[in-house]
TrEMBL record:
Keywords: Hydrolase, Metal-binding, Metalloprotease, Protease, Signal, Zinc. InterPro entries: MetalloPept_cat_dom_sf, Pept_M10_metallopeptidase. Residues 98-180 form the Peptidase M10 metallopeptidase domain. It comes from the Bacteria. The keyword Metal-binding applies. Residues 1-27 form the signal peptide. The keyword Membrane does not apply. This is Matrixin family metalloprotease. It holds the Pfam family Peptidase_M10. The lineage of its organism: Bacteria, Bacillati, Bacillota, Clostridia, Lachnospirales.
Amino acid sequence: MKISKVVMVSMIVGIISFCGVANSAKAYSLTGAWWNKGKIEWRYENYISYRAKQMYVEGINEWKKKSIDAKISSGNKVVCGERNINDTWDGLTCPEYKTGSLEFKSQNVFLNKCKKQTWSSDGALKSVVIHEFGHVFGLADTSKTKNIMNGSTWGTKSRYGTYKLTTPQKDDISGVNKIY
Ligand SMILES: [Zn+2]
């Protein structure tokens, strides 16, 4: 995928999450998108480091341990990779939808090796994987909440820097179960 497209998607996701937070008093926010029958099938991109693989598995397992109504298994719909891009994001999810709907067709998830502060920390990177998989389900970012969907990994009232979250929280789970 071209960098320009990744940046564009990033901006769109930013706008969606802003609207979501503004309109909702809940501690979760939904994008309105969903997977048919709640079936999420994922695999690694072909060329991906052992570290990224390990973190994807650990992060996804945190969701599997929770009581969620979405089903996670292996397949080709969600492709998990890594990039080395000098930009502000440490994780990114780029969805494609079925024509004329918000039903997911496929998604690409990326971890950004260039963000060393996150990449070099097991806890932070795992929190990013869990966060990005929240987007995979159809959750939007929340701001400054003590939830895995808090869009900030670092800084004031951040998901990992402040709250050290490495597992989905009650509101994150409620959000997923609202969709499926
Ligand atoms: Zn996010």
